[in-house]
Amino acid sequence: MSKVGIVRNERYLLHDMGYHPESPERLRVIYQALEEGEVKGLFEEIPARAASRGEIETVHDPSYVDLVEQTAGKSHVQLDPDTSTCAASYEAAIWAAGGLLEAADAVVSGHVGSAFALVRPPGHHAERARAMGFCLFNNIAIAARHLQESHGFDRILIVDWDLHHGNGTQNTFYDEQGVLYFSTHQYPYYPGTGAARDTGRGKGEGYTVNVPLGTGCGDSEYANIYTHLLRPITLAYRPQMILVSAGFDIHHRDPLGGMSVTEMGFARLMNIVKDLARSTCSGRVVLTLEGGYDLTALRESVKAVLFEMRDDASWVDQPKCQEQEKKDYKAIEKQIESIQKIQSRYWNCF
Q1: What DSSP assignment string belongs to 66-133?
Q2: How far is CA 5 from CA 47, 117, 310, in A?
Q3: Annotated catalytic residue 124
Q4: How confident is the model at residue 322 (pLDDT cuts 50, 70, 90)?
């Protein structure tokens, strides 16, 4: 069994936007769970660091980095209707990006087989020159650039299962083919991007795959999407690394979402991604925490994913898992067929 790495650091708890769903408690409950009896000591600790100014500027405008840096030491700065900073937010943000970079480096070096960066603030909404949706710097985009520039990777897959579309990540790589972006998201919903017809531009055409979904999708719907869309595209693309924007706001208990995924559903998604990584890139997969705002659901779902990364199903407690209702799957089948038709222009697997 290859080692699974985790990144955690107390600095991430210092970023505090006040009475806000993206709170320090999100990480606190996860960190506490990692110290419980059956979990403690199972995962390899990867020390975090601060991302350098140069690393952040591979994705963000220098003037925007200046803007965020200038919030350091100030008790409150409102950057966006949903996004503010406190005195420690800039430090937390550069350490969040740097923690993910260390996780990626640990996997590339073989120190661990896979890794999960348990960091905040999240990142996938952050645009080149704008904070958005609780995000300051786009951690996963910075990590993809790092893999390109420091390790020479030219085929990176980003899988985004967060409830919300990762507009910042998509826009960073929209006209490139070195990063394939695959997103499932509730639509139409914040931030209003991620239509199925948005497939990339120029050299990047065909390297953005958006799967917009109506509310109510659960374990089976997501598993079918991953099996019939993500799997064939990934096997055709053959990435050298898979990065995952792991948002847990598609959980059925999440207060901001309208999806129906359970802990078992997250484990299944991780199982599919893990198998694809083993088939294409020697198992190299790195996750970073994005959304997820019900604390119990977040804690248990992260545990489920971590145990699945270890090939260990001993965590499963069936009574905790929501019963999946019998559903009419014609709607999701139709959506999958629609996306396959759109993507068949670019991928011979359809």
Answers
A1: HHHHTTTT-S-EEEETTEEE-TTHHHHHHHHHHHHHHHHHHHHHTSSSEEEE--SS--TT-BTTB-BT
A2: 10, 8, 10
A3: no
A4: very low
Q: Which of 60, 125, 165, 251 is catalytic?
A: 125
Q: What is the pTM of this model?
A: 0.96
Place of tokens 């965590």: 315
56 and 137 Cβ atoms separated by less than 8 Å: yes
pLDDT at 1 exceeding the cut of 80: no
Neighbours of 223 (CB within 10 A): 17
| Pairwise CA distance, residues 249 & 164, whole Å | 8
List alpha helices for the chain, DSSP H.
Answer: 25-33, 53-56, 62-69, 89-109, 139-151, 167-173, 219-225, 231-237, 263-280, 295-309, 330-343
Please compute the mean of the pLDDT values over residues 191-219 and round it to a whole number. 98
On the question of pLDDT at 99 being above 80, the answer is yes
